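Entry:
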Amino acid sequence: MGMKRCILPSILLMLSLEAALLVAGRPSVDGEVGAILLPSQGQVADQQAAMAAPKRPWKCCDRARCTRSIPPICTCVDEAFECASTCKACVPSTRNPSLQVCEDQYVGDPGPICRPWECCDSAACTKTDPPTCRCGDEVERCAPTCKTCEPSTSDPSLNVCRDAYTGAIPPTCTPEAVAAGGN
């Protein structure tokens, strides 16, 4: 009976020693084997890896096409009159050859939107291609991307973003607006 009680702790002890040897044999940030790695050194390594990672080829994107992988692989399919200077593969849009699309891919978060609002129920857009839109929605607080946020004329406790945006027509905010035909 005494022998059976000793087998399990002995096995656990041997496995923990093997794990310790594996960890001790791993190179540290400086390349030394067996060196102790402090938490601050790990942060430095993470920052160095982030600085070495490629930058997103676009500043902002309204229509990102991303894979479902982790991290996602994204392409921004926004149409513009001119691609960003950081874009390496700028091609004419298939929908409108006078517009350009950047076909560069980026591994990671696609970044912030370009529109001055996330969504809009009362968008007024021109018939040009691409359209120039303004949003008349009255909100408690304008989106962080809005540059000209003014009090509403009908209710001073609410605000309206007065920015104009040239690009895709924004999505609606409420399901009721979609059911009613949107704007």
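The radius of gyration is 27 Å.
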